[in-house]
Amino acid sequence: MKRTETHIDGLVIIAPQIHGDERGWFYESFNADKLRDLDIHFAPKQASHSSSRKGILRGLHFQNPPKPMAKLVRCTRGRLFDVAVDLRSDSPTYKEWFGLELSAENKEMLLVPAGFAHGFYALEDCELQYLINETYNQELDAGIAWNDPEIAVDWPLEGDPILSARDQTLPTLSNFNNPF
Q: Percentage of residues in the chain with pLDDT exceeding 70?
């Protein structure tokens, strides 16, 4: 596995070592020992998997304290544009976002720390797998608007995104009491 830093502290891209031959390929999508060797200490408690049609935008979601979630995400089918927003009010990169294309082909993963909002836009029909360090708690579930002008994510949209009813009503940062 290879660790690549982003401009936001704690937000890390992980590329697995892929072994392949004429039969196909194999890689470890999670190995706690190898991640620890990369100075990544992540212990999942939950695994989730989502499917989205092209044009779907999900997010920007997070879980509030006392059980904020860190996520290790990877695309297992198709392609998507994955985004993480730093909501840690004491961070020098507070309100900054980072985005990258995750795909079944590139097999890269993004480690999204606790204190970040997370979302993605389906560039084609896709599936996203999440390893999460906390279990889901509906009472702590929260989010901010995908199109918040204060954050100004540069989504690679092809027309208007398809949003859930919930995501259409998420608040902007100016209308939000930040728990981080």
A: 100
